[in-house]
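Readers of this paper often ask what the protein records in our data store actually look like. Below, we set out a record of this kind in full and without editing:
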Amino acid sequence: MRADRLGHGLRLKVGLCLLLLVLAPARGASPGEAAIASAHPLATEAGFEVLRAGGNAFDAAVAVSAALAVVEPSSSGLGGGGFFLLRHADGRSGFLDARETSPAGARAELFLAADGRLDREKALNSALAAGIPGLPAALEHLAREHGRLPLSRSLAPAIRLAREGFAVDEKYRHLAQARLAVLRRDPEAARIFLEHGEVPKGGWVLRQPELSVVLERLASEGAGFFYRGAFAERMASEVRRLGGIWTAQDLASYRLREREPLLIRREGAVILTAPPPSAGGVALATGLAILERFRWRELSPTDRVHLLAETWRRVFRDRAAHLGDPDFVPVPLDLLSDPAYGAGLAASIRLDRASQSAWLPGGGEPVEGSDTTHFSIIDAEGNIAAVTQTINLPFGAGIVVPGTGILLNNEMDDFALAEGQGNAYGLVGTSPNAPAPGKRMVSSMTPTIVITGERTAALGTPGGSRIVSMVMLAVLDVLEGRSAAEVAARPRVHHQFLPDVLIAEEGAIEEPMLAELRRRGHRVAVESRRWGNLQIAIWDRSVGRLEAASDPRWAAEGAARVETVTDAEVKR
């Protein structure tokens, strides 16, 4: 096994460790400041509060993650999961897989209607749609194994926000409107997240006292209470009463997975990204290998968009055919990440003509929901956390477990629940991603760290299947030397094999390019809405400067900041 391949085994781990140590900043080098970019200014402030108390990037990650679970209930929560990509200042790296798992009783036929078709309501808007959460386990592990502060200190801001409340913003109101009918169905969800059954007015204060109690128990007792004992039994009982299939044993059996980050070397840079059950990291590895064969930097803007569409067409086909939980199915990482494999895919691409997805073998792409959240942190010592977390669709299944304030996710829809039948997005899943007891569903979440000769960037975004294309675009922009603000703001394009359409944000493709792409055979759709919520932090080591930027598509003033934390503040 070559050390530049993605995969597992001792030789890869040793090669990865040595390579990162070589690329670690010189002895004594550190940013001197801290950068946090998250989806909400209150979550960013929670992270800085913990840094000022003497915490490192990983303590701050606990604070930001938990705060987002409170102030962005549409996107994540204790009832969901996530991926935590970590890099210590000395070059050590790690990946915490806190993805949700399938209850033991889950079977594909439970999600089918009488006619044998997939029942969208069961898969999305019922307690049956909820996987076993992983976020509580991740927060405890992160604090214990990587942080410096007690878990109770890092959770304090989130506890305070849940208890005292905060004024909801326009994003909250927008997403509550999108899921209004579902939230109204559940008495607890309607009571907590709506104002007399309606979308709250601007400035309405959301208080979550039940959730604050759960967070307080997590702070004082650790995650054990959530997964074992009376609380877990009550959770499972309530979920069954609501129509789900959780058991106390499902919760007790949940295990956080520590995995090796995937390693990609391109253009003299090292890229650390998410391994399976993320499909994004593998897609990034294969995609960059394809682009490299075409001398990406020398192409015209039109050729670049054309080549991106052809590249994504192929990597999304591979996701559908090969990706699943590596603890359950063999994932051919060595094959998919081999530069020779990328070269073979590149050989099937013409720059003057679009191919068609129907020509490529394989099924469709199982896609998860579009509402997720990401944050990026670089602390004053050079520790880095890139974290993407989710409950799937906005407000998950729209159901709150009574007495807990915890929203159930609807991640079961990320499995291939009906072979050959479309999911919520009209797309088709395949057998490697079929549900099984304790199995993790495939995800597009792709937290990523890019290390070049002069700069280090931490980045990621929500966006369902579009996460893959957005992260690849961001990585290419970082490699080209763009600033954090430029990377976050750049217009986006996307293709995902099926449906066979190249999608673009307004302003991403000018009319002459649009005409040329259509002449080459692309079906192009320009959307008025914008997608994603990229959060990026960049450390320019050549000049000792930090940058942080939040996606301007959601006006979240103060959500990305750089701040100096004084020596007096960090004394413990």
The CA atoms of residues 37 and 521 lie 39 Å apart. The radius of gyration is 22 Å. The domain at 12-63+76-100+255-393+424-572 is CATH 3.60.20.40 (Glutamine Phosphoribosylpyrophosphate, subunit 1, domain 1). The longest strand covers residues 81-87.
